[in-house]
Amino acid sequence: MSDPIVLVPARMGSSRLPGKPLADIHGEPMIVHVWRRACEAGVGPVLVAADAPEIVAAVQAAGGHAVLTRADHESGSDRIFEAIEAFDPEGRHDVVVNVQGDLPTIDPASVQAALLPLSDSRVDIATLAAVIALDEERDNPNVVKVVGAEIAPGRLRALYFTRATAPWGDGPLLHHIGLYAYRRKALERFVSLPPSPLERREKLEQLRALEAGMRIDVAIVGGVPLGVDTPHDLSRAREILARPAGRHTVQ
Asked: If you classify domain 4-242 with CATH, what class do you get?
């Protein structure tokens, strides 16, 4: 790992919150808040991969960098791969960190934490999780759980991701956070693979990598950032970012 870059995919076509990247949070578009948090992580340059000129313009107006990608990508992974290939065709950046464009409260320390598992050359992809603190999240299919084997304090090798309540029995459950750090070659391989059977069944893209034999390691962090998917989420984000600390995870 020598030269990481952070990619933030953003698209306008959210069914529950149309125009989501440009939603106003205290006078600035949400995508600008995400871009700022990613910059504060200090792990490398930050590039927004947008599907609309309006998003590109908003990021550039704030002093950031953005590229326009195709509007028909099926996933953020496909979008960031197009963006990195256009931005860095020479392959100088060997690690790509994917920070979702709807995480305006993301802790920059979490972005940093996603890189740590890649210190092991056997790891293809790194991601994050936090211990579930609320009982109602344990059985909620919208809360994705990761099942893994502990290989060091605060770090797991992922065995499975699921919407079910797993693993069974006493003990903590882990809420998966959809922030990934890919080795560049792993991202290229991942987007070249067809959707896998378990990916289609669980509707979880990361299962494609596991079914293909790729290794995903998980760093445990202190909390889950708020993902903005609905007008209610947007109101919560505005409340959180109005606090003096400015950035807080949500349990």
From this structure: alpha beta
